[in-house]
Design a protein that fits this description.
The protein is α+β, with helices and mostly antiparallel strands. The chain has two helices and four strands. The strands form two sheets. The chain has a two-stranded antiparallel ribbon with strand order 1-2. The mean pLDDT is about 90. Bound molecules: zinc ion.
Length: about 90
């Protein structure tokens, strides 16, 4: 086992690279990577984030679609005409 093979960028104007100080724990395509830089783990992490974002987007879309739909149903209803407007809101969400 050797150190992680990834070179880390210093960023900025005078960009330099230094080797990742972590121990290589995972071998991918003949190279050692630490837990942070292993391509398989990075891919898995990204997939997880993407999945979460997709789900959130879906929920958001659903929320707005539902709102749009409800407003169609509620067309012609004036909230000032409702005695129990507050109650309707509370029972809704
Ligand atoms: Zn590393």
């Amino acid at each position: 086992m050797s150190n992680c093979c990834v070179k880390i960028s210093s960023g900025g104007y005078l960009e330099r690279f230094h080797p990742c100080p972590n121990q290589g724990k995972y071998q991918t395509a003949g190279k050692w990577y630490c837990g942070m830089h292993d391509p398989k783990r990075i891919a898995a992490r990204r997939a997880k984030i993407r999945e979460k974002l997709d789900k959130e987007r879906e929920q958001r879309t659903e929320y707005y679609k539902r709102k749009e739909m409800l407003s169609v149903f509620a067309e012609g209803i004036q909230t000032k005409d409702l005695d129990n407007y507050e109650l309707v809101l509370k029972s809704g969400h």
